[in-house]
Amino acid sequence: MKRLFLFLFFLNIVLAVNAQKYMTKNGYIGFYSHTPMEDIKGDNNQVVGAIDISTGEMVFQALIKSFHFDRALMEEHFNENYMESDKIPKSIFKGKITNLKDVDFSKSGNYNVTVEGDLTIHDVTNKISTQGTIEVVSGGINANSKFKIVPEDYKINIPGVVKDKFEKSLEVTVAMKYTPIANK
Amino acid sequence: MKLWVKIVLFAVLVIVITAICVGLHKFNLKHPDTAKAKPDFVVAATVLQKEFEDNEGTASSKYINKILEVTGTIASVTPADSTHLNIALKTGNDMSSVICSFQNITDPSKYKTGEEITLRGECSGFLLDVLLKNCSIVVKRK
């Protein structure tokens, strides 16, 4: 009896801890840049993302080769010339919501958050800070953000001819629909 | 104008026009249609995931950038937006699947969990799951 009680006690802790963690394997990260010749747009719907609502920690991981471009040639250039995805296949963000106390995860609604952390692209890690929203919905949590990054900061070399036509920064969009890990 | 000059000019013109056509064709080239493409490998979802789980390096050099024809049971269907859809196939590991991304499926309700399916897509590698992109359906069985 005592053993059963202990077992239930630990099971309860495990479930309670799990309920604090949410994840998705179908998250979206896209980027966009306008040039006079054409718009550059890449979409990735296979981003892995996790959030721990007790600490505010967030992690994203994406395969560079999962970015889709309408033009096959653009996708080839992106992978081979700019991101060198055969050598550096992944991009990672690890960070934290800095104003976690402003979010009530027990109440549906939209909350503005600031996220700070390390973004690693092309094997170069930079500290970033960005604004975003956390939307508490029934059965999950949605996270959205838009921010700019400068390819040069990540040692992504854009050749001179193309560079002049290029905006210095790219707009990155992040959209996650998390579900509790316990349900997976 | 001398005849040889005319011939040279004409030849130059032909070369320039050809170069422009080839350039434009390459620039506008779409992704290979995986529905019609000949697959490089025909493999079951469970086998594919196991190969990546056992040795990611070997499986990566074998499969990445290749067109795979994969058969498996649908674990989940997740619409990303109105035209994008991810279908996950079950494997021997509950925590890891084969996730296939479709660009042009507008009717996610056609695909249901538990159905067996054969699809083709380009392998982009392994995160927690094996990821395929530009997928198309080959056969669907109940």
Plain-language structure description:
The complex is a heterodimer of chains A (about 180) and B (about 140). Chain A is built from 3 helices and 8 strands, in the order αβββαββββαβ. Chain A has one domain: Lipid/polyisoprenoid-binding, YceI-like (Lipocalin), CATH 2.40.128. Chain A has helices at about 1-20, 70-80, 160-165; strands spanning about 20-35, 40-50, 55-65, 90-95, 110-120, 125-135, 140-150, 170-180. The two termini of chain A are about 30 Å apart. With about 180 residues, chain A is an alpha+beta fold. Chain A has an 8-stranded antiparallel barrel with strand order 1-2-3-4-5-6-7-8. Chain B is elongated, with a radius of gyration of 22 Å. Chain B has helices spanning about 5-30, 45-55, 55-65; strands at about 40-45, 65-80, 85-90, 100, 115-125, 130-140. By secondary structure, chain B is α/β, with parallel strands linked by helices. Chain B has a 5-stranded mixed beta barrel with strand order 2-3-4-6-5. The interface between A and B is medium-sized, with 22 and 28 residues.
Number of domains of chain A: 1
Which value, in Å, is the CA radius of gyration of chain A?
19 Å
Task: Give the structural class of chain B.
Answer: alpha/beta
Weakly predicted, low-confidence segments of chain A: none
SSE order and pairing:
The complex is a heterodimer of chains A (184) and B (142).
Chain A: H1 2-18, E1 21-34, E2 39-52, E3 57-63, H2 72-82, E4 90-97, E5 109-121, E6 124-137, E7 140-149, H3 160-163, E8 170-180
Antiparallel strand pairs in A: 1-2, 1-8, 2-3, 3-4, 4-5, 5-6, 6-7, 7-8
Chain B: H1 3-28, E1 41-44, H2 45-54, H3 56-63, E2 67-79, E3 85-89, E4 98-102, E5 116-126, E6 130-141
Provide a compact summary of the structure.
The complex is a heterodimer of chains A (184) and B (142). With 184 residues, chain A is of the alpha+beta class.
